Amino acid sequence: MSEKEVIVYSDDEEEEVSESKLIDVTSRKKGMNGVELLREMYEIFSPSGAEHAMATYVSNWLAEHDISHQFDSAGNIYAKNAIQGSRRILVNAHMDTVASAPANIVVKKVKDDVIVCSSNNQVIGADDKNGVWSVLKLLTDESVRVPLSALLCVAEETGCNGSDFAMSNHSEEFNDCVFAITIDRRGDTDIIVENYDIKLCSDTMKAQLNEWGEPFGCSSATGSISDISNIVSALKINGINLFAGYYNAHSGNEYTSMKDLAKSYKFQLELLPKLHNYFMREDTTIKFTDTTKSYGAYYGKSAYSNYTGVYDWDSYGYSQKGVKVYEHASDLEEPELIQEFMDTVDDIDLYNEKYELYNEIMELECSLSTSKKTLKLEMAWYMCPDACQMLGYYFTVTQGTNGDACIPVSEIRNYKYQSHLNEEG
Predict the structure, then answer these.
(1) Which of 5, 93, 147, 218 is deepest in the core (most CB within 10 A)?
(2) How many CB atoms lie within 10 A of CB 372?
């Protein structure tokens, strides 16, 4: 499928006042598992730290479907489907959102799709209630003949704290799991096999996933921080973060394409038996153990203890004796330049003794301009204007087409060089 067109609602439209509804989360309409189930979950206001209503709703849904489950003291939910057996697949999503107020949910028919969004410019929480929707359906889908374990987390948006708690205190619940799937990625094509902080899959597993994803137009990609990072690191297994059909996450323009969410679920249904059969055939030594971290500012953890970034500045073209100005990034591939930019943002946060800027922009798509003189943060002025303002203290940040934040590559690279000189001095 071609890249999804981004739907942006005009700021000129009169904004509706958000009203908090009284929602009985102890019950739900029977037999609901499609767009209406998703809509009900969107209507539950569940920002990080206040996921109680959402967790209660999920718990009652599981109980109604005879799925036994447990809570830990942080509020995470642990469950298994009815299929017995070893070498289970772990499915994961998070229940919290970044919403600041309840959303008025609307469902629109658009050509050959159904779009779910808000009418009052509020975050709907598709990140990651789309993932929760998928996990609930997988646990109860009678066509799934694969043993599944599930982890539904709290506090992902504040630094993957829920999954960190689960892995630190209850990882034994997943000792029989051989693969993990987090369903928490925007769009309709990405199979995330590497995050900025950790490599999630072995090269062998990555190649196999690309083969399985090809008929769906899916392929491996690099993503940002998510719960899967904590899971694979603790359990020492391969894992992925899979697309979930949402767009414009963390903004009032967030929306879900039901067509793309359905595509995600169909891919999950085909992927699960392939994964289980694969690990039933292979020796358990296939377990992946390379969990090298590449970023120090991993959500507030010790800044330099995990940092294994590049300190060989000559290899990046920096002059140890004099200032070398970079007008473009021709000596670096685009992924390397993006990684260097994120590393620079990491440094800024460390200098300010905060981790806010990195967390704000890590979900954005980044790309180079045709001339390679500008790094574009796609839709940044729409999705995180405060972060753009903050970046403006360090770089020249202009607004491009579709709200892109545009930063000169030369300024990014020279900031890095000057920081190195200061450390050396």
Answers:
(1) 93
(2) 16
The residue among 387 and 328 whose pLDDT is bigger is 387
Which residues are CB-contacts of 179 (< 8 A; sequence separation ≥ 6)?
Answer: 89, 90, 237, 238, 239, 275, 279
- Do 40 and 152 fall into the same domain? yes
Q: What angle do CA 342, 345, 350 make, to 5 degrees?
A: 125
- Does position 392 have pLDDT exceeding 90, yes or no? no
Q: How many CA atoms lie within 13 A of 292 on its CB side?
A: 5
Q: What would the DSSP string read from start to end of 47-62?
A: BTT--HHHHHHHHHHH
Identify the pLDDT of residue 221. 92
- pTM value > 0.85: no
5 falls within a domain: no
Q: Which residues of 182-193 are buried (b: 16+ CB within 10 A; e: fewer)?
A: bbbbbbbbbbbb
pLDDT for residue 30 is more than 60: no
Q: Which residues contact 312 (CB under 8 A, 6 or more apart)?
A: none
Domain that holds residue 405: 313-424
Same domain, 89 and 201: yes
192 close to 221: Cβ distance less than 8 angstroms: yes
Report which of residues 3 and 93 the model is more confident about: 93
**Quick check: 201 and 238 in contact, CB under 8 A?**
yes
Once rounded to an integer, what is the mean pLDDT over residues 21-50? 78
